[in-house]
User: Which sequence fits this backbone?
């Protein structure tokens, strides 16, 4: 019977079978070792026979488990039978069993089908899988319903640019930049509280460590709020939950990268700084005046938050009207909107949305838009839409910042950028 | 403080606030009733004042809760204060508070932003949200890891046709028909057991009650299997779990449509019928020879299974080589592949995949393909890939068949078909 590497200690003195990849071979003059890798970890197999195996070959190894001081975990297998399930060629294009720290990002991504076997690289996606789960679990506990909405849409939610066009039978559609209209529709449908975990597409020509053209958006929309403060409270509680669960369950993934989470208990201290004041804080720290919260300013304000509030996160709210999409709820000359900056990177944009039909109709001309352009979207306001708002978290950016990855592309299994369309 | 409609019984004798949509107005000559709808259900509000409210207007109503024999749930609110949160226009394009059974599908979908407010229609998506959760919970309990893979790919997995093309900067990519190559890569990466919940795209010109061009695919891939029987066992256990959970938690959604699940205990009896024999069974029942398992045959074989095995589901396996994609593991003249038919509709296709590099290289020319065409995909076989296989379940079809919906489009929030690109 197959036993997982992590469980061999429970089979001490018994004959079992391990199945997995040959992670490493060691020849200590007459005594040979196979380090086998399976989904649970590594196990050591010892034999006196000569071994003619390439690393990454898939094997089933049968033998007796015994204690061994020198083996990882304190137990090893004395090999009695070796089956080759699939041979690996000897010209492995990427070192699976070494720390990839000195390998450039391009080489990692060019060899993606193999570089994902590297345990350190794979740990990024073990953590990411859990982040998705924690996100959904938290929201379900708050009575949110999961939705799946179309990614093929007529136009953009955030304006007409930065859209990828799709040939759709005899017409053209676009890849959705966000599920914005749909998540609002589902709030207005009566679900009130919805979330979606899905791809989003931005045809931006940026090539920076913080941009990818296809990403996983963790979207939230919530009815019966009063201001964006209700949303920031929710997000702070979500972050507290995420960080707590990561600390509970993902220490090995953190350790692989030297990653850490902020102190979950400090999430209730995340400062809320109006946009104007944020610029002032950054200007003071830099000793020169800044006019917008650019990437440098995002780093500075998080350093400030760490020093002043013990957490490297800042909500910036009260953005001016012209910096936000037309559907953002106004608040005098400002808006009920916010960003969340985490370790120098914006991971969330959100806010209250306009929900009143009259206000929407008055707003559109100010943005050079017409009711007709909005198509069916306008009808959710015409027929009774509660006060609501929401936000979205970029999954890859969140993963990146927890683990301390240099580039957001490292946190996407198969990233797409301006030049990269495969593998 | 806001209380949900379902909880007003706990506030008997207290003044509370309800917020929601005006579902219905009743005027009983001097006594007026508002039936308010929120995410939890309906509540009755009574007042002697004249009401000038359109249905779907969003209100907050404050008043004392008292017992009332005639009220739904046995309690109602005596109104003291009414706030209008958002007015609804009086020309509602779709009846939210009536059973939509006599409304045609086109009208339901043309007015999608409003028809989703209909509680019966919305219940489809409450169930669907839970199906997603049950699916993920079951797989996590079996040590599967969730993945999110790119939907922008160089070519098709199932052959070159039926692909939507995307303008991607200066080049073209296609929308993924399935995460096939990526889920196999993640098995080979060492995760061994993976699942993905994501959109899949088929540019098929079909316009039938069983086809949509964008659907949510519940994908599974699993390493260290021997034959497709391991996969069918897993899927039968998954179905048993899903049906059990639906019965436990979704009775209201089932009742809205008169839907049912098969008996969960009978899932271990799902017959496994080789493709040849399935044709024979259908031919005998129809009294004429059938040459393929077409939609009619799928209905007939499920009727047969219900009569013979007490469950309206059949696994059909041992498909001939030419009926399956090139990557399907051969088994003599047949393949280690299967479909799952549920109430007359194929909801799953799956099978063991070729995992040996040598076999893959020998197979490609038989399908008129070359190693170069496979691009990076071939490398997972070249460098050690364990025996593995998987399957996918169409979420909308599964939802459709549990609720007994006539058309799969009813089970998609914003369906896309050959002509429908919105809302």
Assistant:
């Amino acid at each position: 019977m197959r036993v997982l590497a992590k469980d061999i200690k429970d089979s001490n003195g018994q004959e079992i079978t391990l199945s997995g990849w040959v992670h490493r071979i060691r020849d200590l003059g007459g005594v040979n070792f196979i380090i086998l890798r399976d989904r649970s970890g590594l196990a050591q197999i010892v034999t006196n026979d000569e071994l003619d195996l390439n690393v990454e070959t898939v094997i089933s190894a049968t033998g007796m488990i015994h204690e061994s001081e020198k083996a990882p975990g304190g137990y090893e297998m004395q090999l009695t039978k070796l089956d080759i399930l699939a041979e690996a060629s000897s010209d492995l294009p990427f070192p699976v069993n070494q720390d990839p720290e000195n390998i450039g990002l391009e080489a990692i991504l060019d060899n993606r089908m193999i570089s994902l076997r590297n345990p350190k690289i794979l740990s990024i996606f073990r953590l990411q899988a859990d982040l998705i789960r924690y996100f959904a679990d938290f929201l379900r506990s708050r009575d949110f319903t999961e939705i799946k909405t179309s990614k093929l849409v007529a136009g953009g939610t955030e304006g007409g640019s930065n859209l990828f066009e799709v040939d759709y039978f005899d017409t053209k559609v676009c890849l959705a930049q966000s599920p914005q209209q749909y998540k609002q529709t589902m709030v207005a449908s009566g679900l009130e509280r919805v979330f979606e975990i899905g791809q989003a597409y931005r045809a931006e020509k940026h090539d920076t460590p913080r941009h990818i053209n296809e990403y996983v958006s963790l979207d939230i929309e919530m009815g019966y709020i009063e201001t964006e403060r209700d949303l920031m409270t929710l997000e702070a509680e979500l972050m507290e939950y995420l960080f707590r669960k990561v600390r509970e369950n993902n220490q090995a993934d953190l350790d692989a990268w030297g990653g850490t989470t902020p102190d979950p208990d400090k999430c209730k201290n995340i400062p809320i700084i109006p946009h104007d004041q944020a610029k002032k804080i950054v200007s003071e720290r830099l000793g020169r005046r800044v006019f917008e919260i650019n990437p440098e300013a995002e780093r500075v304000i998080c350093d400030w938050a760490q020093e002043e509030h013990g957490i490297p996160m800042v909500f910036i709210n009260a953005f001016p009207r012209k910096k936000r999409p037309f559907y953002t709820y106004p608040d005098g000359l400002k808006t009920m909107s916010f960003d969340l900056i985490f370790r120098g990177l914006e991971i969330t944009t959100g806010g209250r949305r306009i929900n009143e039909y009259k206000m929407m109709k008055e707003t559109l001309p100010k943005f050079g838009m017409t009711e007709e352009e909005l198509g069916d979207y306008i009808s959710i306001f015409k027929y009774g839409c509660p006060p609501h708002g929401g936000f979205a978290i970029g999954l890859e950016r969140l993963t990146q910042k927890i683990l301390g990855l240099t580039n957001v592309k490292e946190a996407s299994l198969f990233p797409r950028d301006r030049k990269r369309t495969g593998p």
